[in-house]
Amino acid sequence: MMNNSKEVQVKLMKGLLDMVVLQFLSSQPMHGYQIITKIRKTFGVYFGPSTIYPLLNALEKKGYMKSEWNMQNERPRKVYKLTNEGQNLLNFTEDSLNFICRKIGNPGMPKDDLGEGHIAQPTLRPLMGKIEHVKPLI
Q1: What is the pTM of this model?
Q2: Which of 11, 84, 86, 107 has the maximal Cβ count within 10 Å?
Q3: What percentage of the chain exceeds 70 in pLDDT?
């Protein structure tokens, strides 16, 4: 059972890595190494530069984040910041995950119960907290 749990966690991390990065950036701008370190501390898994930097470049090309060089330290760092488009994607993903989780939890629930009047609960944040040990979507 332990191997199955880890396998599920790894699959979730692979599928949600871009959203995890956007979620981190929603609280503060970060450079790539900060993101790598925060993923490792939060989830107990190491994604190296060869995974994270292409993901950051892809998310920036799509307009979900922007970057600028911070030249104030000895070592220049490219700092990434969430854009409005990125925040909108993050919000939509949280709503979608909430909908999916509710449908899984209540398979007989009519679609009308989750219609326009439905207020989505933040799903990504609690989900991120539950994934303890866990690679990218893009």
Answers
A1: 0.73
A2: 86
A3: 75
The pLDDT value given to residue 132: 35
CATH code of 19's domain: 1.10.10.10
Range of the domain at 46: 2-129
In a domain, 137, yes or no: no
Confidence at residue 129, expressed as pLDDT on a 0 to 100 scale: 46
User: Per the domain annotation, does 138 fall within a domain?
Assistant: no
Main-chain phi, psi angles of 78, to 5 degrees: -85, 120
In a domain, 11, yes or no: yes
Residue 31 has pLDDT above 50, yes or no: yes
CA distance 90 to 82: 10
How many structural domains does the chain have? 1
User: What are the DSSP calls for 78-105, one per residue?
Assistant: EEEEE-HHHHHHHHHHHHHHHHHHHHHH
Helix (H, G, I), strand (E, B) or coil at 8: helix
